Amino acid sequence: MKFDKLFFMLLAMLCLSGCSKTVLPSDDDQGEETGKNVPSTSPDDEQKVYSVEEFLNGEFGNRYVWVHGYIVGACKRSIKQAEWEPPFSYDSAVLLADSPGESDPEQVISVQMVGKQMKEEIALASNPQNYGREIAFYGLKQKYLGIPGMKKHILASEWLDE
Prior knowledge:
This protein is α+β, with helices and mostly antiparallel strands.
């Protein structure tokens, strides 16, 4: 009887001590903007700005990278709903390409408009004058709207035509 009690206590201790909390990045993790740690990159990676084609063909793992291109459209839910010409009604995402007139879904990437500020300053529904402008984004490569792009974890953007 004493052996049974000891056995169950040992079993309970093993089960309880084996539990640990795994912390994953949340959907609203904005890195530096929220004061949380941002995955480190080497100085060379941080300075490299990839073209849309390089971004499409590159494997970056969990590294944050810069990608630049021209805003060629707006989209929501799926690349099949892309808007390639004004007037634009979507503010969920912009589509980037290496040339300003591109409209082939296989030659563009999608970038989610994360938060109110990006929607107010970049999204085409609110800013049709941004159509054709060159911009760079810093974030993680992820599938978004059914194509490669950046979703949720976008830490910075910078206009290149100013």
